[in-house]
Design brief:
The complex is a heterodimer of chains A (about 675) and B (about 170). Chain A has about 675 residues and is α+β, with helices and mostly antiparallel strands. In chain A, about 60% of the residues lie in helices and about 10% in strands. Chain A contains 19 helices and ten strands. Chain A is globular. Chain B is elongated and about 85 Å long. Classes of the chains: A alpha+beta (about 675), B mainly alpha (about 170). The interface between A and B is large, with 63 and 46 residues.
Chain lengths: ~675, ~170
């Protein structure tokens, strides 16, 4: 098996290298045969996918066949692992995840190369650049992190098993989503660099890559939040985000990618920010690679980090190469990136995008800075320091709040120029609504002066209401205009409005999802927790809930043994549920894992962790967290996904309004 | 009618009750303060067992460090050591990585300054960009294009559509 896999990887490397070299020669030499050479390069790129797919299939089949002669399978699987996790073995370790990365990259390349007729020359350039990235990963797989390396010595009877923390259903989909996001940014990067190299006229490359970027961004968003949900459901500390370097590594490209999705509109509509956009997508791609470097090089310590290895050096060289290539072509062709228009007013959509981008990039810089500061400190002071949640929360929360404010104001600004009068008119009632909610929260007992966390929480909720009201007002105003001219009711008019400009209204739905998530974050200011040794019949209270311990029990299966508590849950003196927090001991890896139980309501989560037995007393310890509004985060993610899908749907034809119809100058449709 | 003695005794009783009430409130307030300080300081320290979790969030039963560290923190809070002294004693015992965030002294100050500096520089850059863009010269009459037809007109129409579409 390992021979087939190794051979497939070598063939893939040869094909990708051919695609790169032949493609580059075909593009640089304008001879009679260059078109044919270019076509062979394209086909080699397509065939790369088949070869990498074969290697990935071999690795998965080896996991299912318990082929422990392959070191990777020995280290990351075992006989009693269930089928979904055997499949997940593919991305559970370093070599496998690099193979998976390569597979996704070749799959993206396949789609790109099959759609080459859209613009053969631009696609040929992009295909060559994609092949260059592919060659890097295949070099790694063949010479530095070989997934088919053979075990030395006698054949082991069983494997070490999958890391217990990864044996959770979400881990079967979280890494693929995240990788689809990371790898996907290679495509807009390749198009941006291709357009720069060939001095591509106009903004067509942006239209071509818009969907790629949005799909990629959507996958990365899903990946990040699936990771957060996994952390919440498995790690048992009651939180979902710990500012760990690996979490930060996924957040950085998301921040710059989000900035790009906004600023690219300025280039499409006004021909501005061309240099900025090109560097933003370069940075996003480099941050994706940098994240992989962070997690694999051992430069920073992380609870998620894979084993330290020498492949970090490969990534440093690759990052340097990318940067030099980008800088070279930027220096050579920067005259091509001049802005076409001037900024007519500071009160305009353009300036709101400028500030929006500034804040996203500052947030990204802060995350990068905080992640790397321990390394910098070691260089300068000779000792490492910890940069943990207190730093990131303190610096990033104000930036996030400013972004939320811009999310509210931005849609109300028109391209080019907005009169202050119109801004005031559109902003007044949403602002009044937000203030009203603030007063209401103060009246029901919120005391922002007691703790800075309460203050941030209040401001977050008020700004979220402001955004929600501006989004709603945009839908209603546009819907009313259509209703007036088509005679439909308001709801169907709003539906038609969204279908006519799916990108804009899909974007608003995404904004709505963001504020629902922000409200969920705001709830964390009011988290409570308690811990207690709980014998039979003992009680523990938290918030409105009382837990009564009924019993403890144990179970055993070939993969793990487990013990759990049976707790009756009471609220207002009435039994409402029975909860079973669990602790598992995985036999193959000799590791324990907690499986918290969560009772989730719209108001908050009751989160129970069975922490195990007190070594001294022999009594079980239970910890209960009361986490307000957490479910809002997961609901918000679904809304964001819905909005992203809506934005990807092609626009329907605009409704034809008779030429004689008088269109009133209501401030509708100020642009995307 | 109550005598002066009885009235004074009543007054003394009221005063005693009030004093007890005030004392118990002060004590309870102190207890509340201690809990708040413990929570605050416990969230400014890391568990040093390698879990990379905040001290009060480390959930490893039998963790070789967190329970002892929490006990030390409770003792420091009960002794009414000030925050700096408490944190410093942890740094001396467990090293600088025990603090969950860099201090605001020496080189560590750079960690805090850099993000705000980046924001300030970014704002300056945006202001500069806005000034450059705004001061870009308008087309002089001689440069103004002649009336356009055909594909060029379509291009302008497309531009108008992009800039004004709903």
């Amino acid at each position: 098996m390992s021979l087939i896999g190794s051979f497939a990887l070598l063939v893939a490397l040869a094909l990708a290298a051919y695609c790169l070299l032949a493609g580059a020669v075909a593009l640089t030499r304008q001879t009679a045969g260059s078109a044919r050479l270019g076509e062979t390069a394209r086909r080699a790129g397509i065939a790369t996918f088949a070869a990498v797919l074969l290697a990935a299939i071999v690795l998965v089949v080896a996991a299912f066949r318990n082929d422990f002669s392959i070191a990777y399978i020995f280290h990351h699987s075992n006989r009693d692992l269930s089928a979904p996790y055997k499949f997940a073995t593919l991305w559970s370790g370093q070599e496998g995840s690099l193979l998976f990365w390569s597979l996704l990259l070749s799959a993206y390349g396949l789609v790109l190369r099959l759609r080459y007729k859209t613009d053969p020359r631009l696609f040929a350039y992009a295909s060559v650049l994609l092949a260059a990235v592919q060659v890097f990963f295949l070099l790694l797989l063949n010479f530095a992190a070989h997934p088919f390396a053979i075990m030395q010595g006698s054949l082991p009877a069983d494997g070490n098993g999958l890391n217990p923390l990864l044996q959770y259903p979400e881990m079967v989909i979280h890494p693929p989503m995240l990788y689809l996001g990371y790898v996907g940014f290679t495509v807009p990067f390749a198009f941006a660099l291709a357009a720069l190299i060939m001095r591509y006229p106009g903004e067509k490359w942006i239209h071509i890559t818009r969907r790629w970027t949005m799909v990629t961004w959507g996958f990365l968003t899903c990946g990040i939040f699936l990771g957060a949900h996994w952390a919440y459901s498995v790690l048992g500390w009651g939180g979902y985000w710990g500012w760990d370097p690996v979490e930060n590594a996924s957040l950085m490209p998301w921040l710059t990618g989000t900035a790009f999705l906004h600023s690219v509109m300025m280039q499409e509509k006004r021909g501005m920010l061309k240099t900025w956009n090109v560097w933003l997508i370069f940075a996003t791609f480099m941050l994706s690679i940098f994240g992989t470097f962070l997690t694999r090089s051992g430069v920073v310590s992380s609870v998620h980090a894979f084993a330290q290895s020498s492949i970090g050096d490969w990534f440093v060289v690759f990052l340097a190469l990318i940067f030099v290539t980008c800088a070279f072509f930027y220096g050579k062709n920067r005259s091509h990136l001049r802005s076409e228009h001037k900024l007519e007013s500071l009160v305009s959509r353009e300036s709101s995008f400028l500030f929006n981008n500034l804040l996203f990039v500052v947030a990204c810089f802060t995350v990068l800075w905080g992640t790397l500061f321990p390394v910098l400190s070691e260089w300068v002071q000779g000792n490492k320091v910890t940069v943990g949640p207190p730093f990131f929360n303190r610096v990033n929360i104000p930036v996030a709040l400013l972004l939320l404010l811009l999310t509210a104001v931005g849609p109300l600004l028109a391209w080019r120029k907005t009169s202050l009068e119109s801004l005031k008119r559109n902003f007044l009632w949403p602002a009044m609504g937000a203030l009203g909610v603030g007063v209401l929260l103060l009246a029901v007992g919120m005391r922002p002066w007691k703790d800075v966390a309460y203050f941030y929480s209040l401001v977050t909720i008020m700004l979220s209401v402001l955004v929600a009201l501006t989004v709603i007002s945009e839908f209603v105003r546009g819907g009313r205009v259509i209703a007036r001219h088509s005679g439909q009711n308001l709801i169907s008019s709003i539906g038609q409005l969204a279908r006519r400009n799916t990108r804009r209204y899909g974007g608003y739905v995404v904004h709505f999802g963001v504020i629902v998530i922000m409200i969920g974050f705001a709830g964390s200011a009011f988290n409570q927790d308690t811990e207690k040794e709980l014998g039979f019949g003992d009680r523990m209270s938290i918030g409105p809930y009382t837990l009564v311990c009924q019993s403890y029990t144990q179970d055993d299966n070939p993969n793990y043994s487990s013990e759990w508590a049976v707790l009756d849950l009471y609220k207002g003196g009435k039994k409402i549920d029975t909860m079973y927090p669990e602790r598992r001991f995985y036999k193959a890896s000799q590791q324990t894992s907690t499986i918290p139980r969560v009772r989730s309501t719209i108001g908050g989560d009751l989160y129970i962790v069975y922490e195990g037995l007190n070594q001294d007393t022999g009594r079980p310890i239970l910890k209960a967290h009361l986490n307000p509004l957490v479910s809002w985060i997961w609901v918000g993610v679904w809304i964001m996904i819905l909005g992203t899908v809506l934005a990807l749907v092609p626009n329907s034809l605009p409704v034809r309004v008779p030429a004689t119809a008088r269109i009133e100058a209501e401030p509708v449709g100020v642009g995307d | 009618m109550p005598s002066v003695f009885h009235r004074r005794a009543g007054l003394r009783k009221s005063l005693l009750q009030s004093a007890l009430l005030v004392a118990s409130v002060v004590v309870l307030m102190g207890a509340g303060d201690n809990t708040a300080r413990f929570e605050d300081l416990g969230h400014r320290l890391m568990c040093v067992c390698g879990c990379r979790q905040i001290l009060l969030e480390c959930n490893h039963v039998g963790c070789a460090y967190s329970e002892g560290m929490r006990a030390e923190l409770v003792a420091a809070v009960d002794r009414a050591d000030n925050d700096d002294l408490t944190l410093q004693s942890f740094v001396q015992k467990y090293g600088p990585t025990v603090l969950a965030a860099p201090t605001k002294a020496g080189f560590n100050r750079v960690a805090w300054i850099a993000p705000y500096l980046a924001l300030a520089l970014g704002l300056l850059w945006v202001a500069h960009l806005a000034r450059v863009w705004r001061s870009r010269p308008l087309l002089r009459p001689a440069d103004l294009p002649m009336p356009v037809h055909g594909p060029e007109l379509e291009r302008f129409r497309e531009q108008v559509r992009k800039e004004t579409e709903a």
